[in-house]
Amino acid sequence: MSLPDFRPPFGLRNPHTQSLLNSSAIRRRFARRRASALLAVEQEWLLDGGDGIRLLAHYSPHNPRPRGVAVLLHGWEGSSASNYILATGARLYAEGWDVLRLNFRDHGATHHLNPGIFHSCRLAEVIHALGDMQSRLDAQRWCIAGFSLGGNFALRVALHGPAAGLSIGHALGVCPAIDPAHVLKAMEDAPGFYEDYFVRKWERSVRLKQACFPDRYHYDAWYGLSGLRARTDYFATRHYDFPRLEDYFDAYSIAHDRLAALSVPASILTAADDPVVPVQDVHELAQNRLLDVTITERGGHCGYLKNWKLESWAEDFIVERFATTAARPPW
Question: Which of 51, 127, 175, 325 is the most buried (most CB within 10 A)?
Answer without folding.
Answer: 175
